Every structure is written in structure tokens, then in C-alpha cells.
Model the fold of this input.
Amino acid sequence: MDLDERKLKILQAIIRNYLETGEPVGSRTISKYTDLNLSSATIRNEMADLEELGYIIQPHTSAGRIPSDKGYRLYVDQMMLEKEEQLSQATQEVKDMQKLLLEREDKMEAILKQVAKMLAVNTNYATMISAPQVKGNRLKFLQISKLDETQLLVTVVIEGNVIKNHMISVNELLDDEAIWKLNLLLNTNLNGLRIEEINLAMIAKLKQQAGVYENIITAILDTISEALQNDDDIEIYTSGTNNIFKYPELADQQRASELITTFEEKQLLNELVQETLTEENSTGIQVYIGNETPIQTMKDCSVVTATYELEEGVKGTIGIIGPRRMDYDKVISTLKTLKSQLDTLYKKD
Amino acid sequence: MDLDERKLKILQAIIRNYLETGEPVGSRTISKYTDLNLSSATIRNEMADLEELGYIIQPHTSAGRIPSDKGYRLYVDQMMLEKEEQLSQATQEVKDMQKLLLEREDKMEAILKQVAKMLAVNTNYATMISAPQVKGNRLKFLQISKLDETQLLVTVVIEGNVIKNHMISVNELLDDEAIWKLNLLLNTNLNGLRIEEINLAMIAKLKQQAGVYENIITAILDTISEALQNDDDIEIYTSGTNNIFKYPELADQQRASELITTFEEKQLLNELVQETLTEENSTGIQVYIGNETPIQTMKDCSVVTATYELEEGVKGTIGIIGPRRMDYDKVISTLKTLKSQLDTLYKKD
DNA sequence: TGTTAGCACTCATTCAACAAGAGTGCTAAC
DNA sequence: GTTAGCACTCTTGTTGAATGAGTGCTAACA
Done:
């Protein structure tokens, strides 16, 4: 048995209706809702077929039907195809975002937080955004400065302009010349290298050349290695987690508590980010419906993600998390526009 | 009518019992619970008095009594007096924390997050911790470095060793000597100054001396001013917000949603931090019971805060947020120990 | 005068029974 | 192939009674 035109229309009608109300939808509703002019009995027959095919589910014998994950999937896939053309019309909301982004170009963290918040307010779903993650991880710049008699400041810049600072306490006195020499030594030897390329031999060589400052070199190298391998704790900002309470299917204590924890701990979200970044996709938009999501605690949710790219290899992920019956249309088009805006905005830098 | 010995004992018994169970406690329970050897009828008479005095409340006619804010307050105040001596015995839990703090002295942010998490796990309440806030706000160190042909890195260190970085795009080419001169110019003129002390006259003078690099000076000064006046967005880390679901009196959707939002937005928590930092107190521990808290959304909670001090004027706040019937004894002693540990740990730096 | 036993009373909670209503599946007729 | 009609199922909401915890009050007692 295959999906003919009519079954498709009925399925769409069921889903649309369910997205609005969140209640199981019955045959009589559909009979009036669509322009098919069919009686409820006919709809019932078709619905029985749709259920057999796995597109809809009956929560209990005498209830209407709700879409299954498979049903949502079909709906979303089809929507993605149809809506392709009218993407470019930016909504007022997104224009607001862009304005905000342009105004505060200075502070990445503040921008990302604002974007997350704005998305949450506009969509009424929970949102997350990950700070752009650098792939290359080459050392770009290194500088040691004397803060005062006992403390050195080490500034490390890695590819993608991620800046790390670290303070080192020293015992011996260092004069300006010693520091200048250290800077020269380290920069000439290490610049442009990846973490794997800084091996024991090189370290030994550096220490030897540093002479009496050997132990300082150790401390500095620790700083560098930490800066270069910080892929385990990327920043992720969330907003609107309280929105889950707006959807009864997510708001019971068990589920809510789990979701809140997931958002707070962030480390599970990180897995989601990694997943989206690897699984490349022509549109850059991914939709996970119910059990499709890589995060167990979100199995009753749908997750829509967009990856944005600031420059070659510097990518981040935006995610919107809501109930299965989220407004996919709005969410996807919002994310598409935002994504393209972020892409261009930063690329012109 | 005053509180005699017996009334006090009964009040304590009511509170202790309520802290455990969360259920209104009746006269018969108290009659058995205490070593007073009084019949339930007598207890009832005393409870009627206690209610008239405002220490306990009857949720409805045929229920037991629960403590009022006034009752809790009396209980806590008395506990604080009695427990003074046995503070120093650090629990295993707190020793774990200290170990963790010592191991990872390098990363403030990671430490604070860990402390918050550990506290949350150990107490089963929601926790927050604010990064230490610098009062002085003097410029300690300033450095401009050339990242590449088009970008300068400005590193600003302010009193209390807070480090800020900023990148500036430049059009004209700068050689090493020019940068060296800029560094010298800025450091000699600005070091040790507060933001109010960098006035228009000084800026004009700097610009004049900078000659062709006038516009770079402007950008750098912007960075400095931003770094110096960042008191509006201190970092606050939270953990264990999902713990509120463990207490039915906080777990209904309305309240939970509000609390979650408060924890997520953080800006209300900031007010709490400011409040605790100003309202000085000999012990450094503050207890807000129910409506006493400065944050409206927490009127059904109790909040216990401790201020810690890393060095002169560099202070932060730790807060534990739970239901009115929180285990004040445990929470206060844990915070006291943690506070003293933090105080000494960093002071020796 | 303080303490206690006893009793009537109140109120929240639980449970079963019941009615209402929504929706289905099936059959027979069109 | 479509539809009307009907019996049937299952959820939801309501009602009312039983239960039980706990109180306030009175009268007796030490």
C-alpha cells in the first residue's frame, strides 16, 4: 500500500491540527478541516490505513490520532522541499537580531547570549548556541609579559583568534631582557605548530636553550597545551529553558527535571553539537524528531539545529529544542535566515 | 505572653519534625517525639499559644502546624548561637572540595563551577557562586601586541588580576618600534589609574603624543574603559537547579518555571550578590527565610549565602537555595567551612 | 492552677460509581 | 468507492461516602 495524494493530504491535516492543539485529532475534525469534502467515515478508513503504515498513532482505543515520528519526518521532509524558494524574506524578528549583532560586534559572548535569548523569546522554545569551535588548533601567537615581581602573564592566541591567558608565579627575578629572549625563543620555535607537533624532543631542546629558566618553560608549555586542546569544554549558551513548561507533554516533573539538567550540565549538549558538526548536510539545517535525537533525555522533544560558519573551519551550532509538535515551519525558516546572516556577517570581517 | 522554656522546646520539635517530613505536624506526634512527657492535649494548648504568637501556622482547620517565617527565624538564630564552637570539624565532603580546589588552582571558572556542583550534589539544593568581584578597578597592566598585519591584540589587566583581551583591526602598517612606543606611552600614563581618573584632558594629551596613531588610541581606550567598568555583568555559576523538583512545595509548574528562569537569567541573582556583599555581617553568613529574600521569585524558598574574600576587596558570594524547610544546620555549617577554606586558600597566594 | 481524657467537629484525601462525550470500527445501504 | 448509522470503548469529570488525621473545648483530676 502506498501513500496516494489523498492520504497525504489527510496526514498533513492531522499534523497541522495537532501542531496547533496538541490534542489527538479525530476523523470528524478532519472531515470539516480539509477541502476534500469527505465524510468522517471515509476519513476513518483512510486513517486506519495511515495507522497501519505507521504514520499516525492512536493513544488509546477511543481517541483521535497523533502523528508518529515517521509521520512528522515525512511532513518535515516535504516541507523542506516545498519551502526552498521563499527563504530569503527575513522576518522583522531576524532583522532585529541582525541589528543587534552589528551593534555589538565586540563581545562574542554577549552576542551569543543575546542571540539565544532572542530566539527563545521569538519561538517560545528552548534554545542553545555554541561558541564557534576552531578545528585547526595551531598556535598563532605567544607572549610572556612581566606583571609584577612575582608574576608572569602568558597570552596565547590560537588559530581562529581564540585568546587564552594564564598567570604564572615565579621565584627568581626576571629582567626585561630575559623576558624578551624567552619570547623570541618560544615564538620562533613554536609558532604555527599543532599540539601533536610539540613533542618531547622539541621540549628538551627548548629547555636546554632556556638555561636557568627551564622550569618557567615547563609552566608555559602547560599553558599552551591546555589552550590548544580545549575542545572538551566549548562554551554553550542556553536560553528559554523555562519554555518547556508551556508544553504539557514536557512539563511533568520527571521530564522537566531531566531536561533542565541537560541544559544546565551542557556536556550532553556538547555531544549534540559535535554530532551536528560532523554530519554535514547541504542546507546546514538538521531536524531530529523524537527518538532521532542523539540525546536520550530529549527523546520526547524535537531538535532543530543549524551550523554557522564564521570562517573556514570555525563553526558553531544553534539549536532549538521544543516538543515534537513544534512549529517546524517557523523554526526552520528562522534558523535558515539566522544562519545565513551569521555566515555572511562574520565572513566579511 | 512570652516564650518559656517549654514552648521553645515544642517549637523546636515542630520545626525539626517538619524539616524532615515536609508535612504539617500534629500534637500527638510532638507528644511522643519530645522527652517532655506531656499529653497531646497539653501540647495542643501550647501550640494554640505559639500560633497566636506567630511562630507557627495552621494550613487549614483540621491539619497540624507548620513553622512560619518568624518561627524559622527564631530557630535559625538560636542555632547560629549554639553551634558556634563546633564549626571547625570539616566534613569529608568539604575536604573533597578543598582537594579539588587545590588540584585545579589554575582555572578560576572551572573551580567555581566545580564548587557549585559539588555543593549541589552534597546538599540536594540549588546552588550559585559568583566570581570574585573587584572593587578597586585600577589599571594594573596594559599591553599591545601585533598579531598579524591587520590586527592588534590589546591585553588589559586590572587590579585583582582580572584579565581582558580585545582585538583591534588596523589599516595602517605598524612596525615593532611603533608598537613599543605605544606601549610605553600608554603604560607610563595610565597605569594605576581608575576609570574616573582617565579624563578628557588626559585622552587629548595621549592622542597628541600618539601622532598618526590617534585612532588606535581611541580603540584602545574603549577597551580599557570596558574592562574597568564591567561591574554590571559579573559571572555567576549555578548548579543543581533541578534539585527544586525534589521538594513538592517548589515543584509545581508555576513556581518551578519562575525559579528556573531566575537561575538562567542570572541578573536577579546578581542583585542578591550585591545585597549580600553590602550587608556586612560578622560571620559572613546570611540566612534569608521565605519573604525575607530580596528576590521576589524566591519568596517560597530560603536562601543561605556566604561571602568569601580572596584578598582585600576581592569578594564573591556563594548561595544555596532550597525550600523553607531546608536543613539549615547542615547548609550553614557546610558554607561556614567552605568559606573559611576559600578565604585562607587564596589568601596565601 | 496546670494537666489530661474524652468527644464532637472540621477538613483534606481517597475511592468507587456514574454520566457525559469523543471517537472508533463495522456493517449495510447507496 | 462513499456514506449513514449504531454499538462499543475509553477517557474525563463529578458526586458522594468513607476514612482519618487533627483540632478545640469541656469537664474531671491532681
